[in-house]
Design brief:
The chain contains nine helices and 14 strands. It is of the alpha/beta class and 257 residues long. The strands form two sheets. Strands 6-5-4-3-2-1-14 form a seven-stranded mixed sheet. The protein has a seven-stranded mixed sheet with strand order 7-8-9-10-11-12-13. The longest helix has 12 residues.
Length: 257
Amino acid sequence: TQIMRFGCLGSGSKGNAWLVQAGDTCVMVDCGFGPVEAGKRLARLGLAVDDVDAILLTHEHSDHARGVAQLAGRARCSVWLTHGSHAMLDASGKAPTSACIIEAQPSFDIGDLRITPYPVPHDAREPMQFVFSDGARKFGLLTDAGHVTWHMEQVLGDCDALALECNHDIAQLQAGSYPLALKRRILGRFGHLDNAAAAALLHKIAGSRLKHVVAAHLSEHNNAPELARAALAGALGCEHDWIGVADQETGLDWREI
């Protein structure tokens, strides 16, 4: 039987990129790294730029979109994104040449992967996150959202693996040195999920099939891996070290589902 796996090239405010592979298909979600840096990070996971069959974009913020157009050009692959994300990139002259617009369809296929986009509340033009399936297994990805909606709970339920945003610890953010306006943005309903919010979501949606949980998009200034781990482990009642953390520098090694 074919394997399904996911990994990460880096996760955080300096650049994000995730990989999902099933059978002969490998898709990248976001590319906040330039093509040279992305190539180095792909090599760590045993891949080359040419191995990427498609890039999905969650939203247009530079830590997610910075390298998308260039990497897609080098990989000669298409970029799937919403009208809103495309319009924002187009306005700044950074739109990919081979764009596939994600319409309001419930899901679509790229090779051996079925991809279900779902809208999230974030301060971007038309942000989406994604759930991936190979027909037997499901991986849910959630990297940028200000709060959890009912629809997000429905889409992310019943997954075999989850990567959930744990951007900040509220107390650490409030006590930290960020300007007040930035703190308000992060804490707002279109900002970023904190550890406790991610844990509450996990507690609600965790099912018997869950084999992997990874904390994602941790702030380098307003969080710590052990705080994110503790929050998610508390939601599941599991050992702290069972929870993975996707790191800014080293990303996350392949996890087979």
